[in-house]
Design goal:
By secondary structure, the chain is α+β, with helices and mostly antiparallel strands. It has helices spanning 44-53, 58-71, 83-88; strands at residues 3-13, 22-29, 39-41, 73-82. The chain has one domain (3-88).
Length: 93
């Protein structure tokens, strides 16, 4: 169980023709090459739930989700979690 440190980027995608609106979370490691993939959630409540699963407090999760909804793109710096937690939530392969 190695700890990985990096940034967590949350992007709000308003959707377009054929694509429904969704939020996309991507883990961007500080060092090394990791096979990362975006995790997609369909609405605000699912985003808050995913952030809580990633060990954010409920207050922090709602604050970050609200910023992502209003600003479009946010970056959470110095995000440190275990590789198994990130793998279980679909952020790394």
């Amino acid at each position: 169980m190695a700890k990985l440190t990096g940034n967590l980027r949350i992007t709000a995608n308003p959707g377009s023709e054929g694509i429904r609106p969704h939020f996309e979370l991507v883990f961007v490691p500080y060092a090394g090459r990791l096979a990362t993939k975006p995790a997609k959630v369909s609405n605000y409540d699912d985003l808050v739930s995913l952030l809580i699963e990633l060990k954010f407090s409920e207050d922090d999760a709602t604050r970050w989700a609200g910023k992502a909804r209003s600003q479009g793109v946010i970056l959470i710096a110095s995000f440190e979690r275990t590789d198994t937690l990130l793998r279980d939530n679909g952020l790394i392969v």
